[in-house]
Every structure is written in structure tokens, then in C-alpha cells.
Design brief:
homodimer, 144 residues, mainly alpha, Arc Repressor Mutant, subunit A, 6 helices, elongated, DNA-binding
Chain lengths: 144, 144
DNA sequence: ATTAATAGTTAAACGCGCTAAAGTATAAAG
DNA sequence: CTTTATACTTTAGCGCGTTTAACTATTAAT
């Protein structure tokens, strides 16, 4: 059975998704990045230095696919491969500065409507909502 | 300048996206739907009966692309085209029951982690967070 | 009645991301 | 030292979503 809060969270997510998905796809199109590429950037951004297979598994594709996708990112100067000196079979994937910038920029594009939303609340409402979200963020971090 | 609440909203979204995007893509892969198809289903679900060009514009593609994408959805029994009796050049796009079911199902798959999150809060925290989200939902509806 | 405009469909061609399978390089095990 | 395992890359081939351009059907304008 789903709690009343779960219900509300789902409803909120539905709204979030509609706005965010749209902004995301339009951003990708405008900048000529594919959804797969941006998703890969997010994964690398989050996981930090990791192997190609790990990345593929994260994204639900074969390591061959991950390797090829990474090629494009490297070509565009958004990511780099470096060898693991301990075990030279392993590669460590990381974002370049340009790659990090794209992550930030695309998130901003995706979330621009949130700023409009924040403005619609009174000062005290803002404080209350802020407090609640902080709580959620804190708890979410224990879910990883 | 971005408010403290904006900042928190963005941070929350970053977390939401990471979980949700991943679940979304894995669901799509498992069920053999493309991201484009699911996005189209969401758009139709939200906009209700609308024309093919409208749909294309919503998704940022040409009407030809929208028409072709719709073909696949129709083939799979997820959507239907009906003529507008007023102006027979117009078509009205709508989801079938099966289509609606996919929308619900994919949202549920995408959001399963939210239930785990909700459980991590005490009763009074749940009430507080619920109230805040209700506020956001209400305000968001005025943004459409 | 023509002509022009609108909404949608169809066809050809292209790039992308995917997989499977073969290939390369390095490390570990016997 | 040889064999086996691991991590990644390369290649060939496939389906999907996209665009442009041509086409059909319907409505509006002159």
C-alpha cells in the first residue's frame, strides 16, 4: 500500500517530468547532442573515474556500445580516457572541463522553469518548502 | 540572481533526474519502447486530443516525423487517429486504454524509488513534506 | 470555378546507437 | 612458459527517428 506522501511525490514527479523532459529534449536538439550522449555525461559526472564496462552497465548497454559512445564524447572534447597504471587493461573515464560545463548547462536548461515556480511562493512558503526539500535530499543521499 | 529555494529545487532535481532517468531508460529497453515513443505517449496523455502538427511542435520535430512516430504507436495499439468532423484536414490524436496503461506503468517504474524515500521519513516529517509538495503542485499548475 | 492555403501522409536518404562477433593488449593461473 | 581470463576496441550489419521533398485531401479566398 502506498502512503499519502508517496502519492503526492508521484504527482509532483509527473509534473516535474513533463516540464523537464521537454526542456531536456529541446536542449539536446538545439545543441546537437543525443539523449544517449547527455545521459552518458550525467553518468560519468556522477560516478567519476570508472571503467568502460561499468559505464555500459550503468546505462544498460554492452561495453562495445559504451566504448563507441565514449569515442564521440572524446572527439567532441567532452571526456577523456586514461589508462589505469595499476592494471593497464582498465581505462578510467572522466569529463573534461567542457564536459562538466555541458552537464551544468543542460541541467540549467532543464530546470529553468523551477525559478519561475520559486517566485510564485511567499517568503514564508519558500522557507517551509525549502526545509522540506532539504529533508528529502538528505534522506535521498542515504538511498544511493 | 537565484533564490535559496531555487538552489534547493535544483539540487533536488539533480537527484531526481539521476534516479528517474536511469529507471526510465531501463524500463524502455526492457519493454522495447524507444524514448521517443514514450515521450510521445506522455505528450498525448497530457495534451489530450490534438493535431499531428501540434504534437510535432510539442516534441520539437517536423509533422512528418510526428506522423511516422504515431504510425508505430497506432500499430502497437497504443494510440488512435480520428478525423475532426468540423475540418476533415485535422486529425485528433488520442491514447487507447493500452496506451494509458503504458503511461501509468512507465511512470510507476520510473518512480519506484520514491516509495523507499517516503518510508525513510517519520510521520510528522511526512506530513510536513506532503504539505510543501502540495503547495508546489498547486503553483506549478498555474505555470502551464 | 479557380486558385491558394492548410493538414497530413508517403518516400528516399541519412546518421545514430545498438548488438554480435572477432580482434588486441594486458594480467593472472597452471 | 603456456594457457586462460579480463578489459576494451573494431567491424559489419540492423533498426529507428529524422529531414526534405513530393503528394493527397480538404477548406478558404478571389
Amino acid at each position: 500500500m502506498r502512503s499519502f506522501l508517496s502519492q503526492t511525490l508521484h504527482e509532483w514527479m509527473h509534473i516535474v517530468m513533463r516540464h523537464s523532459m521537454r526542456n531536456f529534449i529541446l536542449y539536446a536538439k538545439e545543441k546537437n547532442y543525443s539523449v544517449a550522449q547527455l545521459n552518458a555525461l550525467y553518468r560519468i559526472h556522477h560516478k567519476g573515474a570508472c571503467g568502460i564496462s561499468d559505464l555500459g552497465e550503468e546505462m544498460g548497454v554492452t561495453s562495445a556500445a559504451a566504448s563507441q559512445l565514449l569515442d564521440k564524447l572524446v572527439q567532441q572534447g567532452l571526456a577523456v580516457r586514461t589508462e589505469d597504471p595499476q592494471d593497464r587493461r582498465n581505462k578510467r573515464v572522466a569529463l573534461t572541463e567542457a564536459g562538466e560545463r555541458i552537464v551544468q548547462e543542460s541541467m540549467a536548461a532543464r530546470q529553468s522553469w523551477l525559478d519561475l515556480l520559486a517566485e510564485k511562493l511567499t517568503q514564508s512558503e519558500q522557507e517551509q518548502v525549502n526545509h522540506s526539500l532539504r529533508l528529502l535530499i538528505e534522506k535521498a543521499k542515504t538511498l544511493e
